[in-house]
Target: DUF1963 domain-containing protein
Amino acid sequence: MGGWPFLDPGQEWPACFCGERMALFFQFDIPGDVGPFGGDHLLVFHCRAHNDASEPRLAGGRLVPAYWDAPQPPYPAPFWRVLIQRGAALPHPEAEPSVRALPLALRPFADTGDEEGGGAQIFKVGGNPSWAQEPEEYTCACGAELVYVCQVPEGMDFAVHPGLPEQPYSVRPDTSWLFLGNEVYLLACPEHCDPAAVWPVNQN
Model:
């Protein structure tokens, strides 16, 4: 969580439409057995000044072209960026200034699921999404069906450095949330049509 982002050569640190550089909430190397993304590096950025839920923009049954940059009414563009990087070898020279750098350790476990086939409601990579509502499926603008990669549980706190402006709609000044603290399911394009071709589904 936090720390120095590993970005592909030429990939800039994402900025929000408001002009502020987005905060790096977490990143990790995707384990090799997680579908078409094994060995890739995933990073989740989110603006600290804008805290809302994501709304998919569709056209002809697919997410609109460049949906990672599409307007998010009432905003002219998204306030987040999720990247799957394939050539990231070196850390960015600057560290994330707001989210505290903390270790994020992944360990294998049996995601046995419930009677309806949903998995454990925890932070996890791979396995079965524990849909809080009805399952959601999306088709990328390139035509590929998005694939589930990672889940962030509802109300997960991310520690921030003291003395910063409090995030809107958060619960404490020393923590931040992703997407209003909703349960977040990251679905990504298996064709890797763009590093940002990832859709964050929000449910509660």
Remarks:
- The chain has a mean pLDDT of 94.
